[in-house]
Amino acid sequence: MELMIGDETICLRKRNYKRYYLVVGILAGLGGFLVGILLGRFAIPRGEEDGMVSQAPRFSSYEGGQHSTQHDLPLDVSPEFHRRISADNIRDYLRDITSHPHLAGSAQSEALAQDLAQFWRELNLDQVNLTPYNILVSKPDRSDPNAIQFVDEHGNVVFTSAPVERTLTQQDNIDEAVPPFTGFSPAGTVEADLIYVNYGRYEDFVSLTQDMSVNITGKLVLARYGELFRGDIVKLAAHFGAAGVILYSDPGDYTWGDKVYPRDWWLPGTAVQRGVVMTGNGDPLTPGYPSIESAYRPPKGFVPQSLPQIPSHAIGYDDVKFLFRQMKGAIAPPDWRGGLNLTYRLGGVKTPKSFVRLRVTTRNERRTVYNVVGIIRGWEEPDRYVIIGNHRDAWGYGAFDPGSGSAIMKELSRVYAEMKKEGWRPRRSIIFCSWGAEEIGLIGSTEWVEQYSKLLSDRTVAYLNIDTAVQGNFSLEGNASPLLYHVMYEATKKVPNPDVGDQKAGLLTVYDKWLQTFPDKPISQNFVRPKLRDLGAASDYTGFYQLLGIPAADVHYVYNKKLITNIAYHPLYHTAYDTFYSFQSFADQDFQTSRTMAHVWAETSALLADSVILPFNITDYAEALLRFADNIQKNYGRMMKAAANITLDQCHEAVKSFMREAKEFHQRITKMDKKKPLAVRRVNDQLMQIERAFIDPAGLPNRPHYRHVVFAPSAVDSYAGTGFPGLIDTLFEIETARDQAKRWEVVKKQLSVVIFTVLSAASTLRDVTAFMADYFV
């Protein structure tokens, strides 16, 4: 026998077989050495010193440094969170964050981004990045502020709205505050009669123009905040022919009792709620694509469709009193009357030739904003991400919104980094994100999602949104994908109730108080859980959820909404009085509520990052699908049958099929061997793909930037979530539509999309080892 090695021929004989085995052994050793190098370089997760993590480190108190087959989480993680999270740290972080206003695109906001990046570098996170985006921002003109004026019959300006809030306490530094404005309102001047339109909802405009016969074409409309997104108010006003919009906060919606700020946290008459009126998400100049250096942008002068068509401005209720007293017309219906001690009239001014003037000087310009991203790599599955995000920009000082969340996320990252330093790592990677420019259209997070959509879609387990984390100190409330219901319930059962009085009453955990205050409808006679609302599009979870189908949650501590039913948000929302002083004085004096929220997010992220099997409950999703189908049947079933012979029978059958597959899937999980890495990976991949299965690349009718077939914001209120939105949108007001026949065809199409999508999602739950023909039965 002969063996060729290079140019040399070696003859193998029985007498020199030892030489043969020696050569083969050398070759095998070299091969093994090379394979070992390659595996060491590319297969092992990268860590801190030289980029390598060779094992799964754990605290020494955890046996063996591996996951238990009886417990998905290491036994010592929850006590570590409870011991390490510091209320004092959160207080200090918030005081620093709120020392100056930090509007999107401002130097102060960039300084906060740089400070956070440095903070994370000093914590020795595995990776810290600053990601820039050059976007369109909106700014008021300090030297020539926006104004509402009343001009009398002689042409004299007898009233001008306040250019900025008045200083009410020594702790306020209003001199630095951003003047009131509505983001992306076009500049211009409108002089016209004033018409009161209640909350500016679709039904309000219909009632006013049709039932009350009030003409609003070319008029200024006055709308109060409280029931829907301000951008939708302006959009609806333009649709009904108005020339401009004046927004205000009515004391009937933002006060309770007779004390207002600074005696209590209820809204004073001098306060003005700022906010964006753009109806799209992301940079309006680069829709659908990231606003990076190479991005195409339209020529100067182009007005994107997402920007409002008519000007708008917001004022306080002290100023609106003067305007109401100049109005004539019919007295407003009882449910249109707010908390002002005057007569609410529908419109027109009393004196001929007098009018209201809306003057907007807001301008748009391109600025660079930054996202800050900090990463702790997982030891077992570094390519699976649990993302924790909070926006950084604010309309003013931003203590409640978003500072309470920013301070909590900062403390959470410190605790995780400290645990990592002592030898612990999560199973999956945890990514902390501080978004720029959320307040003017969810821009920072949307651009990031657009830029990294392929990677995020493949690898992200869930997105946890920490926005206005503390609105009050009463109980937990929030929104989430049904996949995360179970996660939120289990996490809050681990967190002590911060209220000592509640604990004495037997409400020992956050979950206990949450269940008592905000119970959901009973699932069965003896089974009640806390309520989690459906996700709309009110914060940075929107891009993850609506574009990519990544499960998301957004929860916070709130005031007693059972007692105070008229308050939509915390009363000082988006005003110059949203300061460290007001937060500490009236929401969280000892910062124990903030500490509790940090603990809730720590437990939630740990369950997602460290459980062997992802803790998603798919039957909760099936229950939500059934609820939506039942609601459509209840509200539209008879009309659909009578007008177009449409039934929901197939829709209900599809939902039942999904429920069956969900139950069988969870049964298989209970029987699987969790010690087999590939089996675990296979099941987790199926769990990760469930939410994605409900994404329609075509998007919703006339709203391609919303792709989730099951959950999306209402077409007439971006804050509110709705089930089967494509179907609901086409059914809305269909009986009064001029093109009913065409609309009914769209209804049929959207119903077919719902049925197909639910069945398709159900198929992803089947046993992947089953014969492929099963998929086509």
Descriptive notes:
By secondary structure, the chain is α/β, with parallel strands linked by helices. The protein folds into four domains: 2-42; 77-137 and 367-610, Zn peptidases (Aminopeptidase); 141-361, Glucose Oxidase, domain 1; 618-776, Up-down Bundle (Transcription Elongation Factor S-II, Chain A). Helix content is 37%, strand content 16%. It is built from 22 helices and 21 strands. The strands form six sheets. Strands 3-14-16-15-17-19-18 form a seven-stranded mixed beta sheet, sandwiched between helices. A hairpin with a 5-residue loop joins strand 4 (147-151) and strand 5. Helix 10 packs parallel to helix 15 (541-548), helix 18 (618-644) packs antiparallel against helix 19 (649-671) and helix 21 packs antiparallel against helix 22. The longest helix is centred in the C-terminal third of the chain and has 27 residues, at 618-644. The radius of gyration is 29 Å and the shape is globular. Mean pLDDT is 89; it is low at 1-28 and 30-71.
